[in-house]
Amino acid sequence: MDKKTLDNLIDKWSNNSITIEEKEILMNYYNSYQFSTEWDNTVMGNPDEIGDRLFKKMDIGTPLATPTKNASFWKPLYRVAAAAILFFCLSWVVYTAFFEAPTYLIVETGKETKDVVLPDGTKVTMNVNSKLSYPKRFENHRRDVIFEGEGFFEVKSDSMHPFVVATPQMKVRVLGTAFNLKAYADDPLVETSLLHGKVEVLSKDEKYTYSTLEPLEKFVFEKVSVDKAGLTEVKPQMEVLPVQFIDQANTAPVDVAWKEGKFAFISTTFTDVAREIKRRYGVELVFLNKEVAAYKYSASFEQESVEEILHALNLVKSFSYRKEGDRIVIY
């Protein structure tokens, strides 16, 4: 480092414009040479003057901040104070870089879908009513994000830094892949559908690997529920299923049809369809007939209204319905 660069860093330090990286360079450089016989005054400048400029910023008191050629008594204390303060500054830099909790950004979609590009280049397409939390920059050995709702992840490949998505029930760990994750708080299931690559589905504490998915496989996690008597909790059920398609050529997976603006489902109960209708259209369906609620449907819609969807479903399996204010009653 030449004297011009050193002076520039000290000026930045004094006027609060220095970056964390520049501060670390400055402190490392000064601290490594201040006790050394290799200190070259023609390059570094007078060490006492440089220390004085640093101490002015630190405000440690006039006697130590203004040594003179005649004040040789203060020089040993001056250097001890310099070492102590610089050690504190370096410790702060290290703490900030490695231990301070990262700042997380939060993206919520509301009634619209959104595309988000993460700091590593990973792209996340978020469905309605979804929430993504991620750090301003990924550090250490992993890329961790927190997710709720539904999203399609196109993960940037990085074999040295696994990408981990946390939901309240489980985690998904990948290196580079494309998958759909559906984890709405009010859904009874959490679903991970893999299009290509490979993913591991883990317990939320990462002690257990539930499954390792191959392309076009889907992991379904049924949340903890209460048994019919309402007395005990039923353990979550898990299974791996093949991805299903809405076209005969098997090129359009039903789980990512929403990315193309489609509202599609295969062998889905009317209750689950109603939940998606409320999420997508903001219209609540109330069932007075449990048998009708258990009907299963397969269909694909794009621009149809709720009334048009109900009319189409009614042609497959008959039911009656009426509109009451903001909701539709099914019976």
UniProtKB/TrEMBL annotation:
User: One Pfam family of this protein, by short name?
Assistant: FecR_C
Output the superkingdom of the source species: Bacteria
Keywords, A to Z?
Membrane, Transmembrane, Transmembrane helix
Membrane-crossing segments per the record: 77-98
**Chain ranges of the Protein FecR C-terminal domain:** 262-330
Under InterPro entries, the record lists: FecR, FecR_C, Ferrdict_sens_TM
Q: Which residue range or ranges hold the FecR protein domain?
A: 107-200
Q: What is this protein called?
A: FecR family protein
**Protein species of origin:** Sphingobacterium tabacisoli
